[in-house]
Design brief:
Largest sheet: none
Order of helices and strands: HH
Mean pLDDT: 84
Radius of gyration: 30 Å
Low-confidence stretches: none
Distance between the termini: 91 Å
Structural class: mainly alpha
């Protein structure tokens, strides 16, 4: 197994001390990345729900305006 230049300069003790820190950072980074993707997905779903609600509201408003125009032309 080939060591990187960084690992070549580390003593066994220093290397043993750094590995748990690096592993913890990777775990934290992985958890944070998952959280960001999860929040993004939730935001996309909320945006889609809002767009659907606005679309339905617009159709209701259009139908109401049409019915009011028809009622005005009949009277």
């Amino acid at each position: 197994m080939q060591q990187s230049d960084f690992n070549k300069g580390l003593s066994y003790v220093n290397n043993a001390m750094i590995h748990p820190i690096a592993a913890g950072l990777m775990d934290d980074l992985s958890a944070e990345t998952y959280d960001v993707f999860s929040r993004n997905e939730q935001n996309e779903q909320a945006t889609q729900r809002r767009m659907k609600d606005v679309g339905l509201w617009s159709l209701q408003l259009l139908a109401q305006a049409f019915l009011m125009a028809m009622a005005g032309s009949v009277a």
